[in-house]
Amino acid sequence: MHDDFDLSVYKIAVETPLIESLPISKHTPNFDVYLKLENTQPCGSFKQRGIGLRCLKAKDDGYTKVISSSGGNAGLAVARSARVLGLKSTVVVPLTTNQHAISLLIEQQAEVIRHGPVWDKAHEYALKLVEDEKSTSCYIHAFDDPVVWEGHSSMILEISKQLPRQPKAIVLSCGGGGLLIGVLEGLKKLNWYSTEVIVVETHGASSFNLMTKSGGERARLEKITSRATTLGALEVAPRLVDDFWHSQFRISSLLVSDEESIQAIFNIVNDHRMLVEMSCSASIAAIYNGSVDELLKSKNIPSGDIVAILCGGSGINMNILDEFKSLIH
Ligand SMILES: Cc1ncc(COP(=O)(O)O)c(C=O)c1O
């Protein structure tokens, strides 16, 4: 295992900038907002960190092929990591996956198999492929894997070198919770338990929020109704039940609407000239709409630094942006 996981050495992931945001700080008047630019990772999202480390470990373990069933940013990170590490990759995606996502995977030299009407069927097929080739192929889970969490935690260690003081809060999006657990792992390494961790989801993709109301039990959404499909895990990684209910971490859950997330995409373009997908803009939407400021006030935190993770995402282009334009007022 690579203890010192400087993934940039392997050209898998890069150290990303942390920039001050004056325009976004205006929405939290007593706090300075910094953006961790994970959208500048080579495949466009933070997924490159944890999944890159997972693929590196698969190679160390003697596997020659990695298999994923994510047509989104996780699958793209698998495909890119495999190409860079000289492994083969197969990504099984449901028939509904759009051509934009498939082209990005093919560009990274992945074998793309379109199978089944919904993700579950594609996933089952991917597991069958791994079973058929188990001596050579390794399945890479999008978010529920300790090695993936370890890779994502590198982001927090970087922040500790880039920011002169411990942030009062970290704001991030949550799908299955891989990013969130990675952030918690990083905070643990630094003993930064007093940093508020503000977890944002969209209504309709709110599996973490559901778990926070479950009284300490696992909880499962019936379906995903948000357009932010990248955040659309029906259930978060079970490890988060412990982190939320039984740890020293200070974790809060906020929800934003799809419309607020879409509006935030345009605001980020205007404020920073960067284009991100809805799963990423959702967390920034919670700053733009004042709910992060309100939450910190309710916890009697008077001032300090907030780090918002601009997690990125490849699910956006000019065509999608045009469609979004027609949805906001
Ligand atoms: C851009 C982006 N943001 C956030 C998430 C949510 O990450 P996680 O599933 O690790 O919570 C994802 C997941 O694919 C993503 O691609």
TrEMBL record:
<protein>
    <recommendedName>
        <fullName>L-serine ammonia-lyase</fullName>
        <ecNumber>4.3.1.17</ecNumber>
    </recommendedName>
</protein>
<dbReference type="GO" id="GO:0004794">
    <property type="term" value="F:threonine deaminase activity"/>
</dbReference>
<dbReference type="GO" id="GO:0006565">
    <property type="term" value="P:L-serine catabolic process"/>
</dbReference>
<dbReference type="GO" id="GO:0009097">
    <property type="term" value="P:isoleucine biosynthetic process"/>
</dbReference>
<dbReference type="GO" id="GO:0006567">
    <property type="term" value="P:L-threonine catabolic process"/>
</dbReference>
<keyword id="KW-0663">Pyridoxal phosphate</keyword>
<dbReference type="InterPro" id="IPR001926">
    <property type="entry name" value="TrpB-like_PALP"/>
</dbReference>
<comment type="similarity">
    <text>Belongs to the serine/threonine dehydratase family.</text>
</comment>
<dbReference type="InterPro" id="IPR036052">
    <property type="entry name" value="TrpB-like_PALP_sf"/>
</dbReference>
<dbReference type="Pfam" id="PF00291">
    <property type="entry name" value="PALP"/>
</dbReference>
<dbReference type="InterPro" id="IPR050147">
    <property type="entry name" value="Ser/Thr_Dehydratase"/>
</dbReference>
<keyword id="KW-0456">Lyase</keyword>
<feature type="domain" description="Tryptophan synthase beta chain-like PALP">
    <location>
        <begin position="15"/>
        <end position="312"/>
    </location>
</feature>
<dbReference type="GO" id="GO:0003941">
    <property type="term" value="F:L-serine ammonia-lyase activity"/>
</dbReference>
